Amino acid sequence: MRMRWIAGLALLLGLAAPAMAQSAAGVASFRVGGTALQLKIPEGFCPLDEDGMAAFRRGMNQQSNILNLILITCGDTGFQRDYYVLMTPRTLANETIPRAAFLEELKPIFNAPGAEQWFGEVFSNALKASSERNGVSLEIAGAVTPRGVDDVCGYAGGAVTIQGPNGERKAVQGGCLTTAGGRVVSIYSNGQGTTNADVAKHMRRSRDMALSIMVAPKP
User: Fold this and answer.
1) How far is CA 66 from the centre of its chain?
2) Per residue in 9-51, pLDDT tens?
3) H or E stretch including 186?
4) Where does residue 16 rank: exposed (0-12), middle (13-18), buried (19+ CB within 10 A)?
5) Hey, how many other C-beta atoms are within 10 angstroms of the C-beta on 21?
6) Which residues are CB-contacts of 98 (< 8 A; sequence separation ≥ 6)?
7) Phi, psi (rounded to 5 degrees) for 161
8) CA separation, residue 132 to residues 55, 61, 127, 180 (Å)
9) β-bridge partners, 8
10) CB 202 within 8 A of CB 13
């Protein structure tokens, strides 16, 4: 599970594909396994439309993660501003795991000796592999690394500089791995930035979103 999750979050920082948002609807819904979940859409964000979701899946070419939802800054057309991505590791999609038990399982992974180096290596390798698969040459400095576990999330975050054919991009990510309604959900808040304060802001956003996810009421 560790490599699939880290590889998944690595791919989210190199996005440059066109995007088109649907109108914000207040609440966004998605399914994990057989469970319908919903969350309150943060102010200023809109769900990515179905064509954009399909293009995102093709660009990521991921077999190990299920893409649940993308929220982009309303009016953005290329992932140039802040955005959220929610995914679930495919192997865990049908598992029912209470949040407290799941986070206890994460603690030894996040706190293991050498975990920061291991996360960083997998992150960099995954981003490079994705760029090569899509015919783009990228130079990457920095990495996303584990940032601890509390009673809501297992956190990963970091700042990276990506040098590509369209110039330099400085990006940050704050990720939260958690469960909602017993289903595993990975939440990634992404944007531009360079500092630990920027990373902390995005981890807080991911945590806030995790707390907003609930089982959707039955129709």
Assistant:
1) 11
2) 444 444 444 444 454 468 999 999 989 999 999 999 999 888 8
3) strand 183-192
4) middle
5) 20
6) 179, 182
7) -115, 125
8) 17, 12, 9, 34
9) none
10) no
Contacts of residue 25, Cβ cutoff 8 Å, sequence gap at least 6: 41, 47
Find out whether 6 and 173 touch, Cβ atoms under 8 Å. no
> Mind listing the pLDDT tens digit for each residue in 110-154?
888 887 887 777 666 666 666 666 666 667 777 788 899 999 999
Written as six digits, the tokens of 48 are: 């990515």
Residue 169 contacts residue 192 (beta carbons within 8 Å): yes
Phi, psi torsion values for 93, nearest 5 degrees: -60, -30
C-alpha distances out from residue 154 to 83, 97, 177, 207, Å? 20, 14, 5, 9
Identify each DSSP E strand in 52-182 by its residue range. Answer: 65-73, 83-89, 139-142, 145-149, 154-164, 167-180
How far apart CA 158 and CA 170 sit, in angstroms, is 11
Number of neighbours of residue 214 by Cβ within 10 angstroms: 12
